[in-house]
Amino acid sequence: MTDDQNDAASSSSSQSTQPPLFPHAPHLPLDLVAEILCKLPVKHLLQLRLVSISWNSLISHNPEFSAKHLRCSTSNHNRHHLILNSTLSSRHFILSHSPISSFFSSTSPITVTRFTITHSLDNGNNGRGRGDITTCDGIICFGIDESLALSCNPSIRKFKLLPPLKINNSQSHQTHFQNLYTLLYDRFTGNYKIFSVACCNSEKQVNVHTLGTDYWRRIQDFPCGYIIPKPGVFVSDTVNWLACDDTSFAARVIVSLDLENELYRKLSPPPFYDIMAFEVSITLGVLRGCLSMLSYSDKFSNVWIMKEYGNEKSWTKLFSVPRMEEWGVYVYTKALYVSEDEQVLMECLKMGKYSLVVYDSRNNTFKIPKFQNYNQGSEMTAEVYVESLISPL
Fold first, then answer.
1. 381, CA 20 to 30 Å: which among 28, 40, 87, 140?
2. What is the average pLDDT across 222-246?
3. Cα distance between residue 238 and residue 236, in whole Å
4. What is the dihedral sign for C-alpha 95, 257, 229, 251?
């Protein structure tokens, strides 16, 4: 054999023994691969789909893996994000979001990431961003106009325009109504659903859409004459709205709809007992997996949670947040998130403009987060979502 032939054989042998780019990944048992991959952020998983056909199938099309990854994300605070309001420019919706941890840890301006949705409306309506956002398991939903809504998962960059909702209005002269959309997961059917309360004068029609279908289904109408115009709150297999008690416009009541039997019940708000200040309920929410309520008075705002859902005696005051007198006229409008070190992120309204504030309950200090590339305004609203692989389609 010549020297050239020896060199060629040596080169060929060297190339054949060269390790592959991913030496072990294709040979690991798929259940072990799933245990490792579910601990990674979504942005890394989207890149790892290119490793092999089996990895792509696991990440993109395996509902059990998506559920496992969601459980990991829910317990990992670094995968929680804050979605800021949707804005409409021509035929584009722009969603802005940022990791929730940056609001508590960062002292520099916070950078937000934008996700642009280019939509097509068949009815010729150009639509408009309604602002109200509802979230569940990484999917978000918001209304476009009175009859259209959109579901979206910003983490995997997928979205879908929902079928139009047609309201049977007995008051034929009334053409305008407001729709309040609430996204949730119904474990009794294993489906993600959107509940709509269409408010048209005294009528409060309730309809349900199941993601993956092309229709809405009407259920029993809302039982109270006036509902606070905010989306419902999903917790403990129920969806909850804040409403006015029929006996008194000033009295608040929580209307709860049980998903298993689609029956309503009424729950009392926290026992407001401050005799030195008039205290009223403002908004419902979810904090630490519990139904929460923000109440407001001229001295402070209280953040309450219902530790045992349905047990009105379990209402517990989590924080009392004092007024920020030196910063002018404002009101807290929503409690968004509680960190592990007892800081609470809140939405507030000051001089007609929405803002965010972090209150450190241990040190009794405030911090106003600043943004590098986002302009806060009168239409701002915010919700917390967790990154996931769950499809909104």
1. 40
2. 91
3. 5
4. negative
